[in-house]
Predict the structure.
Amino acid sequence: MQEIRIQEIEGVRIGQAENRDAATGCTVVLCPEGAAAGLDVRGGGPASRDMNVLSMHALIGAYKPEGYEWCDELCEVLSGNVNYAVDYIARHFDGVEVSKPEGTYMLFVDCTRWCEAHGKTIDELEKALWSVGVAVQDGRMFHGPCHIRMNLASPLSRIQEAFARMDRYVFNAEA
């Protein structure tokens, strides 16, 4: 069987973005003329084991004229959520560090200094966050020994509510 590089196939475009600090990335294969396709996700710890509904609709919306406005609005909302979260963490969560991600709505949050200062493990921090209704993902699977991963693909009001709870009940809770 002859091996053909996907870049050599006429009518197929490929894009790739990554954020090494956040240990995340995305590859897009685009067929502007349309094509039947399948999806196979592989790797040591992909964040998604299959294509989610948001990414499927975003892909359709981004590459069809009737979806351009929707896609622009979605990007504006997600960028606003990321900016809000990064700024909030910097101003309110002493000992918590985050880099602004590029090309994703996922934050990779380093809680090492906060955990050390409060005598907590990352497991205890995650449990505290979940107990106040803030769903986070363990960052260890992304090579962050004391990290959490936060999904910001929600309405801004939900993000604001979650950050207020994290502030009041977890990161700045009265002992």
